[in-house]
UniProtKB/TrEMBL annotation:
One Pfam match: NAD_binding_10
Protein's name in the database: Putative NADH-flavin reductase
Residues of the NAD(P)-binding domain: 7-191
PANTHER family: FLAVIN REDUCTASE (NADPH)
GO molecular function: biliverdin reductase [NAD(P)H] activity; riboflavin reductase (NADPH) activity
Highest taxon of source: Bacteria
Species per Swiss-Prot/TrEMBL record: Saccharothrix carnea
Length: 202
């Protein structure tokens, strides 16, 4: 499978690229700064990234924002750019990494009334950006999948992760980047996950 990974220099993107290459996929890794192996392009410019998406079977966006204390639109703006580039080159399959924290859990009172209100104040800017990004993805008309992890760790790949569609994994507080990457690649290859928001946790 030919896969283009954006945000390939981040913690999650690095792991996605690593696992994809280990599995024998043809991977184009998009980074901001040329490093000798990967492809440098401006993700905010559809014309810059477009040629690197052309011919891909799937595009994966692991772009994240480092902004916490101030408003940000990095994920929303970059996703709009990616979608424009995909449409220009006839690429249909998109998998984006979001987060499960901003989703309110109806059947988990500890999370709903204690944990989430605190996190919502601390992370309100990146979460607002992610929520807008998800809206852009849903309205794209592409074959999209949104993957929502909770807190990320550097633990090993276990393949023992749990998933839930359009809701959070009950009691799921953490997931390793390796397991998240494994799920992202599974979704990219599985058309049955199209137009779903899938939460994951260990």
């Amino acid at each position: 499978m030919r896969i283009t990974v954006l945000g390939a220099s981040g913690g999650t993107g690095t792991k996605i690229v690593e696992l994809a290459r280990e599995a024998g996929h043809d991977v184009t890794a998009i980074v901001r700064t040329r490093n000798g192996r990967d492809t440098a392009a401006d993700v905010m410019d559809p014309d810059s990234i477009g040629p690197h998406l052309a011919g891909a079977d799937a595009v994966v966006s692991a772009i994240g924002s480092r902004a916490v204390r101030k408003p940000t639109s990095v994920q929303t703006d970059s996703t709009r750019s990616v979608i424009l580039a995909m449409k220009a080159h006839g690429v249909r399959r998109l998998v984006v990494v979001s987060n499960s924290g901003m989703v309110v859990d109806g059947d988990d009172p500890v999370s709903r009334y204690l944990v989430k209100p605190i996190l919502r104040q601390v992370l309100k800017h990146p979460w607002a950006d992610m929520a807008r990004m998800e809206d852009v993805v849903r309205a794209s008309g592409l074959e999209w999948t949104i993957v929502r992890p909770p807190q990320l760790t550097d633990g090993p790949r276990t393949d023992a992760y749990r998933t839930a569609v359009d809701t959070n994994v009950r009691g799921g507080m953490r997931v390793s980047r390796a397991d998240l990457a494994a799920l992202v690649l599974r979704c990219a290859a599985d058309p049955g996950t199209a137009r779903q928001a899938i939460s994951v946790a260990n």
